[in-house]
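Q: For a teaching session next week I want to show students how multiple molecules come together into a single three-dimensional assembly. I've collected the sequence lines for a complex. Could you give me the predicted structure tokens for the whole thing so I can convert them for display?
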Amino acid sequence: MPLTIVEAVNLALRQEMEKDPNLVILGEDVGKSGGVFRATQGLLEQFGEIRVVDTPLSESAIVGVAIGMAVYGLRPVAEIQFMGFFYGAMEQLVSQAARIRTRSRGRYHCPIVVRVPYGGGIHAPEHHSESMEAFFVHTPGLKVVVPSTPYQAKGLLISSIRDPDPVIFMEPKKVYRATREEVPEEDYSIPLGQARVVLDGSDITLIAWGAMLQPTLHAAKLAQEKGIHPEVIDLCTLYPLDTETIIESVKRTKRAVVVHEAPRTCGLGAELIARINEEALLYLEAPVERVTGFDTVMPLPKMEHYYLPDTKSVVSAINRVMEF
Amino acid sequence: MPLTIVEAVNLALRQEMEKDPNLVILGEDVGKSGGVFRATQGLLEQFGEIRVVDTPLSESAIVGVAIGMAVYGLRPVAEIQFMGFFYGAMEQLVSQAARIRTRSRGRYHCPIVVRVPYGGGIHAPEHHSESMEAFFVHTPGLKVVVPSTPYQAKGLLISSIRDPDPVIFMEPKKVYRATREEVPEEDYSIPLGQARVVLDGSDITLIAWGAMLQPTLHAAKLAQEKGIHPEVIDLCTLYPLDTETIIESVKRTKRAVVVHEAPRTCGLGAELIARINEEALLYLEAPVERVTGFDTVMPLPKMEHYYLPDTKSVVSAINRVMEF
Amino acid sequence: MRRNQGFVRALRPGQALRRRVIEKFSIEHLQILDENGNCDDELRPLLNDKEIQRLYEWMILARTLDERAFKLQREGRLRTYPSLLGQEAVQVGSAFALEQSDWTFPSYREAGASIVRSFPLRMIYQYWAGDERGSWTPQNQNNFPITIPVGTHIPIAVGAAWAAKAKGDPIAVLVYFGDGATSKGDFHEGLNFAGVFSLPVVFLCQNNQWAISVPLSRQTAAQTLAQKAIAYGFAGLQVDGNDVLAVYQATKEALERARSGKGPTLIECVTYRMGDHTTADDATRYRTQGEVEQWRKKDPIERFRKYMEKRGLWDKPYGQKILTEAKEQVDTAVKEHESIPPPDPRDIFRYTFQDLSHDLTKQMETFLKAMGNGNDKE
Amino acid sequence: MRRNQGFVRALRPGQALRRRVIEKFSIEHLQILDENGNCDDELRPLLNDKEIQRLYEWMILARTLDERAFKLQREGRLRTYPSLLGQEAVQVGSAFALEQSDWTFPSYREAGASIVRSFPLRMIYQYWAGDERGSWTPQNQNNFPITIPVGTHIPIAVGAAWAAKAKGDPIAVLVYFGDGATSKGDFHEGLNFAGVFSLPVVFLCQNNQWAISVPLSRQTAAQTLAQKAIAYGFAGLQVDGNDVLAVYQATKEALERARSGKGPTLIECVTYRMGDHTTADDATRYRTQGEVEQWRKKDPIERFRKYMEKRGLWDKPYGQKILTEAKEQVDTAVKEHESIPPPDPRDIFRYTFQDLSHDLTKQMETFLKAMGNGNDKE
Ligand SMILES: Cc1ncc(C[n+]2csc(CCOP(=O)(O)OP(=O)(O)O)c2C)c(N)n1
Ligand SMILES: Cc1ncc(C[n+]2csc(CCOP(=O)(O)OP(=O)(O)O)c2C)c(N)n1
Ligand SMILES: [Mg+2]
Ligand SMILES: [Mg+2]
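A: Of course. Below is the structure for the complete assembly, covering every listed component.
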């Protein structure tokens, strides 16, 4: 049936909980209220208080307790209410979750999923618009997944839940309800670590993920009208990166633009450029462009539209690269 | 007089405390014991318990309290004992320190320095060898400084202390006592945001900072014997980056290698490559190489030498780039 | 006497010697006005009639400002806004006890306290309309901007108290937070630090029973939040938070103890969040109307009004007059707020550091150029 | 009775009505053996002679293993090592109270507890020699690897307790940490969480008076660490940590309460770190020899030996025999440890994820190739 991203997340959680009695959900407001975005709506009613846990306001404990549950043999899916509140859980994530398999030499592992709505554009208060994927991607031992559509959301979340290692599942809240798409009731999963080509093209490669896919695609369509044929890649998994798909495309198109919301410096865009430099330098006919947030704090609603990449800024990047 | 890096840090702290009655030092074991690396030795005795504060074991409060002191008008220099224990203070740093000027529209600012020994190679226990500069560089509102020699250490620390904004001062503990160098008693400071060319060359640009400068320089010397003349740049300040110096050099040498201890993916090396790509792509005759840590946890002493970049790995990178 | 539960059973007679009680603690509750406005004169704070009326007038203004904010949000003229409805007494009573030289560190729900601290109403609307200029603090005031990441302002308030003590300034710091904040690591690290250094800070917890949809029973198994002070070795007190006189008295006393070097105090003010968590929330999803009605009976303003009426400090005309004046002040504030020209996009870059970094200059110029080239996203 | 300090002064007669004590708490101290080995028979745990001797033998083995570790480090055969000297009773007494099915979450100073949990001595040396294989837990054991970031294992232990409760497993979790750890946010978030959900977990604080060079007085202003349990609404008890019987009894009781659904317990064991913080530390920089000597008089092993002697469970030959056996075990462990072939460099990559990511495969191959090309850094 046609679902939004947030409904697809909810469906994936419900179906996996039905399959796996060890799957538990914990976080702030995930139970009685069904989550501030309703992603966990109805789960408390269906699975009860032992499997759907409204926790105290303790980000570090939410992740830490999830780690302990996983080590003991459960499959916790924790929610951090907004990415801006993830910083309090960094020590648990980096110093514990990401290292347990390594430091116990495989004796213990940590199959947790931490779901977290991220990104700007919903006129939210301060600290509600972060996009800190680079922190996670830079941390050895973590997988980082970002769906961009309802179909992707269900398939990727199911894979993340079944994955034996810690996964940060970033949900693009700007497009939580932006579109509906046919999402099968049936069980299906989308393998982690694979990017998808959303639009075939030959002139330039546009790389985006999450909420940035829509303006990127839109810009690509506008470019087509001008006779430029962009290939658009949705990364889907930010770590491990599907370098192959990116390189193969850039070698054909010889040009690329990376789009992300996060601040420019040391964002994931830099890593993508580094990999293109390493594996496709001689193919490039123009510098790879970055369309990103500024190296500033995300502004409050009155000015956040200045900050976020949008169709226009992607279009002008495409033009700059084509005209280089 | 000839001092080690740790002695230069101690001297800078003492002299600035003598000049500025508002300068206070706080952290774990910074007082009575003079710091686990002796960086604050003698300061408690000279300045007393109100200006040199042994704190409870609370990384988040150490940074948070420092922020409050700064907002009230003091000049706190906080110490986090090892970078591996910084994660607990991330929320204070990112959500508070880095934003106070922006969110109060300049009414308040946050002139704190957080000193933190970083990096591997001293056969330390787990979590004592982190190099997480990319986290700080990616965070808008922070400055990030890394000295590589005793002379640099004093001059850069003095500038960091006098800087009106939050500065993370990363101290390369592997070379804390590796070399002695003439460090003037007199007051001098080295401006932030400027890289320095440590070795002039024309064939390839090597970029490093902190403890990685030594193997990089050593590799450069070995290359010279083979008739290759590398230019070696010590970044000194990681944010704001001195892009100009890097680009100017790469445009001349047309080749570059970046060296850092941190995991490869999304490390600062990626950002440097991205900037070279943006401003000097057409000059490049070979992909910029990265010599870095692996995307793994830093191993324990028995294997840490496998992990850390060293002269040999820099040499072979130079060769690969030159032979490309 | 009720023993620390659990080891009671283990206590058998004749164990006095090696198994002994070494510490005893107790937690007090303070109420001065009961729910019908009857006052315990033994405890009544030394406030003159004018001051009593000021307390009432601030509470009316707080509620008026709050109701208007709600309306404005519904009309799309404000963004998400957290209502203070029902917490007027805690906010006004505590702020009224402050000296101007004291510092406050609010969370996000203390519009009622900020106006008493003479923060311009206009700017409260401006901030919640999504304009950073609304979190600029007027020069003569010692108020830190509101903090949204729950509890993270607590160690910062402690740091300010540390600095005040080090400088020998005879001031105190008051930090506001909710019941949910008591579960955060920063609450613990901050209060513990304040205890160790015996700092001049008052921790004021607005226990409004809810953290969005999470009830107090999910924040703690402790009988009170006040008793958390025992963990830090300083004083804790529970206060009827809908009793403006009790809140005023307890805060005043705690501030004086702070200023006179007697260290920190934790004050738990028991109150209730009458509205939704914010305008983006719907509380009917998780709590009963019955519970809300029970608390409506304890309304802080109505209770105080009854008291004033008994004392001849309130009559209909006076009540009318105050309400009208409050509405006028709010009207003016809204007008002023909505006539402020939009912020300058350059501000996005300007305040990141004292001086624009090379990168930021470049990013700003590129951005302004793009806007110029008809790429203005507005 | 001692009131929660500070508001005592404010209490005047006749205030009973509106200013009243609503909660009372007390903290108990438990000692069974005094410093001369005299036992309070009322409290003596039900242990038979063999078990009493086992306690002694474990303590001797712990101390022997520890002394050897120190020597090995000085000879450059181990890296930085944190000595447990003086804390034998806390570690052995508490671990002896566990069932094998229970879980433990140690910090880094509990070699004494791990051996009682039948963790191989060999691997303790291996870990502190800088080899990750030493933190692999044998399959039949429920011990989490040691944790170095102070306090971060506490929420994890709580999560394990949560899972055990959810699965209905009749087990308890025991988590070890020091006095310094009580200042960390994770201590607070973890204990609070355990209280809210009444989880089967025992929090065992080894209060050895020091956190590296920071004395207890800089960690807290509280009179005891045990009273921190009051903040979380569960039981807290202070125990003489150099009295192995008291530690055993308190832990046993707390574990039983946990397994029978009565929730968490915080046990503060008052002991002393007789050695430097680690082999990299020099305690003479920050504490007096006098203080150390005072505590030497309370030595946990000597005290217990006296008790056993009184009971006829100890004589010189027995003591000699135990010591010799301990030395032999340690000799064997060191030999075994030092005969283990060096770790395979591939292990650096192998355990990051269950399956090597594409990036890691590439990084590993490049690395192995470089080693092959005489670029082996060894
Ligand atoms: C660290 C953090 N986590 C989560 C949130 C999201 N959030 C905003 S308010 C709130 C509840 C706070 O409850 P409480 O502390 O009782 O204050 P109240 O809203 O009741 O005034 C939550 C979970 C946040 N702002 N900060
Ligand atoms: C989060 C964190 N901060 C700092 C350190 C450095 N450090 C190692 S042990 C220690 C003191 C710990 O004291 P305590 O908790 O009392 O345990 P003890 O060493 O006395 O057994 C410190 C500060 C650390 N390991 N982790
Ligand atoms: Mg609340
Ligand atoms: Mg200790």
